[in-house]
Amino acid sequence: MEHRWSLRTPVALDVDLIYENASEMACKTRDIGLGGVFIEGDSQTMPPKNANVELNFILNSEEGSTKHKIKARVVRTADDGIGLMFRDFDVGAFRSLQEVLRHKKPESVH
Description:
Oligomer: single chain
Radius of gyration: 13 Å
């Protein structure tokens, strides 16, 4: 049973995932919403459940690129990736997330 408080939009975004101040891991989102995101990848190489991470979204536009950092926690692991819930959600993070959601249009789910 899903326990989400916000809807998720299917969209593939490039995102860098940082765990325990290690080097950035290039990943792709499957879906994203105001409450969290699903990151695709091999769960064996991803952070474990309850791990705190930082996500760096880089959005490119005609005016240049902007980087948006959002903190999250792993709440679900699956063979094909991890589910993250955004944490420490302040006004700046909320605005960054809104910008991320506005930047990309939903893609069809296959």
